[in-house]
Amino acid sequence: MSSTTRRRVGIAGAVVGVASAGLAAAALAKRYAVGRIRLRPDLEAGEPFGELRGRPVTVATSDGVSLYAEVDGEEEAPLTVVLCHGYTLNLDSWHYQRRDLRDSYRLVLWDQRSHGRSPRATPEGSTIDRLGDDLAEVLDALVPGPCVLVGHSMGGMTIMALADRHPELFGDRIRGVALISTSAGKLAEISLGLPALLSKAVHKVTPGTVSILRRNGNLVDKGRQVGNDVAFLALRHLGFGDARNVSPTVVDFVESMIRSTPFEVIAEFYPALMAHDKLSALGVLDAVPTSIMVGDRDWLTPVEHSKAMAAALPRARFTEVPDSSHLVHLERPTVVNDALHDLLKRAETDGEVTGR
């Protein structure tokens, strides 16, 4: 081997060594950071996340999907609360709301198609309008009397799709609506907390990137399984407004729900979320008491989107929750639950006053 070759090999080896050392140092720093976070006092460490259960049932949809649902709470209560979860989550994401409401109300919680315990749907069936039809069929099967609908993120969009496709249900059957961290449309225009030019670039490349990754969904899912520390740190900073004080147990709980949602499902619903536009359907909700809630640091469904919905619904009560982000119902459950109790009282009173 010539001296030139030996020199090139030596340089290459040094580069690889430095790169490997850098990766090792980054991994060590990541583990150290996560370890320090987990060592802090955690008031939620003993909370039985994912363990609260109701009576399991299935709802067969008109296109052949057997949706998983649970009926919980006071079976004889005059009002049923129907909880519709968000994108990549499942019915367990309503842990704090279920715990708070189950002693006073009849609850129906359901896993949206392709999420949680509900089976996979076809890509063609992965639309917001189809979710609205699913909700109508859940109401037909599991809700015998008046109800209040509560939706987070994609669950709120599901309620808007129901209003668009089945407006006759709002009033006598549906007595109230809560829209939490959601949007009536134009998600493809949000800044994601980035400068304008960078945000446009991200929106431009994301659909193609998601489509490419979808073709290798199994490989992506394997990578998601081994990247828990990275996912933990990312979710802690992006999903919660007060990252310093959020419970590591809560972060782990949410991360496990997201990780259990196959990437193919995430990719199949992504175009539907970006195309969602139900601002014109909001007028239907003005017939019933409505509550709109959003975290002041929500970058996925920004405050401006909730304010736009509130402007279209002059009777709605708007709550901007400080120091919280997209997962406000898990980050600030007391504030959200108080607003829900207020909504439920208004729904009960409205029904009595109008003689419904």
Automatic annotation (TrEMBL):
Task: Identify the keywords attached in UniProt to this record, alphabetized.
Answer: Hydrolase
What region holds the AB hydrolase-1 domain?
Answer: 80-333
The record, for SUPFAM superfamilies, names:
alpha/beta-Hydrolases
**Does the record carry Hydrolase as a key word?**
yes
- What InterPro entries does the record point to? AB_hydrolase, AB_hydrolase_1, AB_hydrolase_fold
Q: Quote one Gene Ontology molecular function term.
A: hydrolase activity
The molecule here is called Alpha/beta hydrolase
Native source species: Streptosporangium fragile
